[in-house]
Amino acid sequence: MCIFCDIIEKKIPSTAVYEDENVYCFNDINPVAPVHVLVVPKKHYEDIIDLASSADADKVLGDVSRAISKVAEINNLGEGFRVINNCREFGGQTVKHIHFHVIGGLKLTEKMI
Ligand code: 5GP
Ligand code: ZN
After folding, report:
1. Global pTM value
2. How confident is the model over 80-103, as a mean pLDDT?
């Protein structure tokens, strides 16, 4: 269905960081920080607007939040990190399968907001 579906189905290799029944977390191929993990619901939703219209939205976002917490624990990010979701063209989304970037491993200084 898309490149992340292929990664989730292990048709394309990736470096797994954490996985549970509903979420797959793997290293970004082009990291922007020492830790740059993509947290991806296994079911295909194009973006957060698409997910919001699904009956599964509460469950998926709960699962995502728990996976982010695991990724932070695994990577010793207790001092903090950033979670980014790029949505659609103006948000800079390039892969149309909802995902959350977990970025950390250093003190993030450049802030847009
Ligand atoms: P977006 O720009 O949609 O928010 O983020 C897509 C992210 O997916 C980018 O940071 C990009 O580096 C990453 N990415 C694209 N293709 C692959 C791939 O085949 N493998 C991995 N591990 N990451 C990918
Ligand atoms: Zn997909």
Report:
1. 0.98
2. 98
